[in-house]
TrEMBL record:
PROSITE patterns: PROKAR_LIPOPROTEIN. Gene3D superfamilies: Vaccinia Virus protein VP39. InterPro entries: S-AdoMet-dep_MeTrfase_Alr7345, SAM-dependent_MTases_sf. This is Methyltransferase. The lineage of its organism: Bacteria, Pseudomonadati, Bdellovibrionota, Bacteriovoracia, Bacteriovoracales.
Amino acid sequence: MKQLILITLMTLSSCATHQGAPLKSATEEVIAPEFYITPKTIEKAVSSPYRTPEFKERDMYRHPEDTLTFFGVKPTMKVLEITPGTGWYTEILAPFLNERGQYIMATHPAGSAAPQSGHIAEWSKKYPDIAKNMKSTIFDLSNPNLELGEEGSIDMVLTFRNVHNWMAKDNEDVAFKAFFKVLRKGGILGVVEHRAPNDRTDPKASTGYVRESDMIKMAKKAGFKYLGKSEVNSNPKDTKDYEKGVWTLPPTFALKKTDREKYQAIGESDRMTLKFSRP
C-alpha cells in the first residue's frame, strides 16, 4: 500500500548549479512509489516502469538497449550525459546507475536559449530515491575553458543528437576538449548524431546532419581514439534532402501537416553511433 511520507527530495531545475554539486533539495510531501527496483541489466532498464510511456514509443527509432550495450555502459560507472533535454535517456540511465554508479547531467545555464526541460524535475519528484543520487553540472560553451567536473573523474560521456547545435556556433572544439578532460584514461565517449551524406559540405550543420568523417576528426582533434561504430541507429529511408532539414522528420515535423504521413513512414533520422576513448 502506498503511504504518505515526508522526504527530502533532490530536485532538478533549469537554474544554475555549481559544477559537480548535488542537486538542490527541498522537503515536501510525496506519495512513496510501490517500487524502488534497481534494473540489473540494460534490457531491464529499458523495459522498467520508471520510463514515461510516450518515451518508450520511440524505442523503435532510438534502439536504447543496443545503443547503450555498444557503448559498454556498466552499473558501476559514473556517466555524464550532455544536455539530456526532456530526459529520454535519463529515465533509463539514472535507475540503472543508481545503486552502484552515478548519473550526472550537464545542463544549459539558466536563462539560455535552450534551458533544461521541467520534465526531468517532475520525474525526479516521482522517484526521489533515484534523484537523490543524481548530480548536475553546467554546460556553458561560451566558456572556452569549460570544465565539467574534476579531471579524470568520469567513466563515460554520452551525447545524443547535440553536435550539430555546437557546430552552428563554432564551439564544438570547446565541447570535445571538456569531454576529454573530464574522462578518466580509458574512459569512453559515446556519440549519436544525425548523419549527413559523405559528399555534403556543411561546416555549420545547417540541415542538422553531420558527416561521419567530420565527427571523427572533431574527436581525434581533442585527443580521442576512435574505437568503431554501430549501425544500430541507421535509417536507409532517410533521404536527407528536406526543405526544413532533419527537423522535417519526426518527432519535430517542421512542415506541420504537409506530407506528414510520408515523413512518418520514413521515421526518425539516419544516425551514426560512434565510440571513442581517452588514451
